[in-house]
Specification:
about 475 residues; mainly alpha; about 75% helix; about 0% strand
């Protein structure tokens, strides 16, 4: 990778009005937060959904099927990245992510009205899969649009800081989904929630969609795209120009294997798999598990902005690679510590923990989430700096959603399949509960090696100039 090409000098535009930047960040972040909330509702209820939408009689098969549908939404995210990314590079950032948020909001709300397996049999999982695929397509276009839109409005010197606010929305959306689900379960009671209360968090997304849509309709198009359009330099075929050009394709592959694949597994290990791990196999009561994870989320979320800002000073690469190294070295020991603190025997259900043990679990989960903030906080700035304006939306969206959608999104399914496998149980015995971590640790190490050896620093690249070199 040609490091000199990334620092092509150009006259920097005057810094935009602070109030305008805040409105841009608020509008972009609000919509992205709503999309993550919508998308992760299913993830938060994946264990619960097995009994609702699949044939009774085989709990393990139902759980794996539920997690597979969760993964299916991630599986189509790269397709959404291609479709909406190309659209965003052709017609503009604003209108494209208006379309993505409408698609996400409506498909999420419809999940709240789905009949269960007891009512319509196999049509229940078929319809659920269809709506999850629509969610995945919409999310595939959302992130790249929001990150690109913010990055093209802010100064080069503080791009990591400003785009890191977009990065907080995934965690806040996850946190919001936990809060709404937890509040609904407590408010309605176990029986009512199982019968119909689970639908409420999905239907609530209609109101969130209305607010976000109103805010986004008032936004203006990105100034860099407006200038590109005025100069007649809009890409005629963003897909071909993104992936048919050897130089740009090289950057796409480096972004995937040197950044987003590892970031994806770090993210989903710390925020999703840890929640599954606490409930199965550690057998913690769901309220206790949700509370411990929510506390850790609240503690760690501000670190997205901290590490995004830090990357403006010392570089994206140093921050992200340090996060990958720490995650690769300490993920398994931290999960072991969580098991020893929470339920060493993994026998009877745990409904409460001593203060010391609970604090220890929160500390371990917070450390795992700190690695998320180190790898995820600077990554939006890193990705937009790799690609020229004319094909930025398309080029950055694909590696992001392959890394997160495929490498990260299928992690809960792969990890659960490993820990419940009879073969793995025979080989590892009591240690089988940690075999699900082999996959994310291996991907993290590969990303660390590729990123350290082949990716140069990007923070000084001026995003309104093309990338040169081969």
């Amino acid at each position: 990778m040609n490091g000199a090409a990334l620092s092509t000098p150009t006259a920097r535009a005057a810094d935009p009005d602070t109030g305008l930047v805040r409105r841009i960040i608020f509008a972009s972040s609000l919509g992205t937060l709503v999309e993550w909330y919508d998308f992760y509702l299913y993830g938060s209820l994946a264990v619960f959904f097995g009994d609702l939408f699949f044939p009774p009689g085989n709990e393990r098969a139902a759980l794996l099927a539920s997690l597979a549908i969760f993964g299916a939404g991630f599986g189509v995210r790269p397709l959404g990245a291609l479709v909406f990314g190309a659209l965003g590079d052709l017609v503009g950032r604003k209108y494209t992510f208006l379309l993505t948020i409408v698609t996400m909001g409506l498909s999420t709300a419809l999940i709240g009205f789905l009949p269960t397996y007891a009512s319509i049999g196999l049509w229940a999982p078929i319809l659920l899969v269809s709506l999850r695929l629509l969610q995945g397509l919409a999310l595939g276009g959302e992130y790249g649009g929001a990150a690109t839109y913010v990055a093209e409005h802010v100064p080069d010197s503080s791009r990591g800081y400003y785009t890191s606010y977009i990065q907080t929305t995934a965690t806040i959306g996850f946190f919001l989904s936990l809060a709404v689900i937890g509040g609904t379960r407590l408010g309605f009671g176990a029986d009512a929630f199982r019968a119909w209360g689970w639908r409420v968090p999905f239907v609530v997304s209609v109101a969130l969609l209305g607010v976000s849509l109103y805010v986004r309709l008032r936004m203006q198009e990105s100034p860099l795209f407006v200038r590109l359009k005025a100069d007649g330099r809009v890409a005629k075929n963003p897909l071909r120009e993104s992936f048919g050009n050897r130089t740009n394709l090289k950057y796409v592959l480096l972004a995937l294997f040197g950044a987003t694949a590892g970031q994806g597994v770090v993210w989903y290990t710390a925020q999703f798999y840890v929640l599954t791990f606490l409930q199965t196999p550690l057998n913690l009561d769901w309220q206790l598990a949700y509370t411990l994870v929510a506390i850790a989320l609240a503690i760690a979320t501000p670190l997205f902005v901290f590490f995004g800002s830090l990357s403006d000073r010392i570089g994206r690469k140093k921050v992200m690679m340090t996060g990958f190294a720490l995650a690769g070295l300490t993920t398994i020991p931290l999960f072991y510590a969580i098991q020893q603190l929470a339920n060493p025997t993994m026998a009877a259900q745990v409904t409460s923990l001593p203060l010391g043990a609970a604090t220890g679990v929160v500390a371990c989960v917070t450390l795992l989430m700190t690695y998320v903030t180190m790898t995820y906080g600077p990554i939006a700035a890193f990705l937009v700096e790799l690609f020229p304006t004319s094909i930025r939306y398309t080029s950055m969206s694909l590696p992001y959603h392959v890394g997160n959608g495929w490498f990260g999104g299928f992690l809960p399914l792969i990890a659960t399949a490993a820990t419940t496998s009879a073969t793995m149980q025979e080989i590892f015995g009591a240690w089988v509960v940690f075999t699900g971590l082999i996959y994310p640790v291996a991907i993290c190490i590969v990303t660390l090696v590729v990123g350290s050896l082949f990716i140069d620093e990007t923070k000084d690249h001026k995003i309104d100039t093309p990338i040169h070199g081969g």
